[in-house]
Specification:
The chain has 226 residues and is α/β, with parallel strands linked by helices. It contains seven helices and ten strands. It has helices at residues 10-21, 58-68, 83-93, 105-121, 144-157, 197-209, 219-224; strands at 2-6, 25-30, 48-51, 72-74, 96-99, 127-134, 163-168, 175-181, 186-192, 215-217. It is globular, with a radius of gyration of 18 Å. The structure holds 1,4-dihydronicotinamide adenine dinucleotide (NAI) and the ligand O=C(O)C1=N[C@H](C(=O)O)C[C@H](O)C1. Belongs to the DapB family.
């Protein structure tokens, strides 16, 4: 398939390498230097746009893809407070958006396990906390994954979102720790990304999956489909 990359940094370049190895073709690369020159007509012939850019750029990039009638896969974090408005825009345009705060299969399994653990523990007296560690170039804090994890745990507990502590350390691709602690014992679950490969593979899988679909989707839709 023909891909437009909206954002051509660490993730955009990783996706290009894996997608090309898999037989896809990257036909447009957009970054902060050429973004102002890009119009929806430049997306003509593109099958899917993949956005890994910046928190303050994602919504305009989604609007660009919608205007071009091109499905868009968005991995950028830090804009999801605007999802309700964007969802309306997608529905009104009859477009397709696939978003995920984390595209790796491992993290999405971690979310499901965290939800179940929170449900099981909800009547007990545990303190819940989340810690996330990322590389020092990361703009947003807390991470999108940590926010999704906190929302998932809160839903399982039928309670408040746990607090999140953010750490920034050189070259860390992404580590998330969920802790339930009481005076009696402690339960910890950690997901450690060894590289960006899981994120890139998941985004490419989503790009193939969204072809021919309309609406707003995320990883649970993909993982639960046949
Ligand atoms: N959902 C997921 O699985 C993952 C999400 N991310 C998120 O993806 C985003 C990008 O991450 P990285 O590639 O590591 O960042 P990066 O800083 O390496 O790359 C960002 C790219 O966006 C470009 N850019 C800036 N303004 C732009 C605009 N208006 N339009 C298009 N491109 C623009 C920059 O020139 C750069 O090429 C971040 O929000 C990060 O949190 C990162 C990894 C996994
Ligand atoms: O910026 C990153 O690098 C990452 N961002 C995502 C997030 O904010 O959760 C996903 C992953 O952890 C890497």
């Amino acid at each position: 398939m023909k891909i437009a990359l909206l954002g051509y940094g660490k993730m955009g370049r990783y996706i290009e390498r894996l997608a090309t190895e898999g037989g896809d073709e990257v036909v447009l690369r957009v970054d902060e230097h050429n973004r102002a020159d890009i119009r929806s007509a430049d997306l003509e012939g593109v099958d899917v746009a993949i956005d890994f850019s910046r928190p303050d750029a994602a919504v305009a990039n989604i609007e660009l893809a919608l205007a071009a009638g091109v499905p868009v896969v968005v991995g950028t974090t830090g804009w999801l407070d605007q999802l309700p408005t964007v969802r309306k825009q997608v529905e009104e345009a009859g477009g397709a958006l696939f978003w995920a705060s984390n595209f790796s299969v491992g993290v999405n399994v971690f979310f499901a396990a965290a939800r179940r653990l929170a449900e099981l523990i909800s009547k007990e007296n545990y303190r819940v906390s989340i810690e996330e560690t990322h590389h020092t170039e990361k703009i947003d804090a807390p991470s999108g994954t940590a926010i999704t994890l906190a929302e998932t745990v809160a839903a399982g507990l039928r309670g408040d979102r746990p607090d999140i502590i953010s750490y920034r350390e050189k070259d860390v691709p992404g580590t998330h720790l969920l802790r339930f602690s009481s005076d009696i014992d402690e339960i910890e679950m950690t997901h450690t990304a060894h590289s960006r490969e899981g994120f890139a593979r998941g985004a490419i899988q989503a790009a193939h999956w969204i072809a021919g679909r309309r609406g707003v989707f995320t990883m649970a839709d993909l993982l639960e489909s046949d």
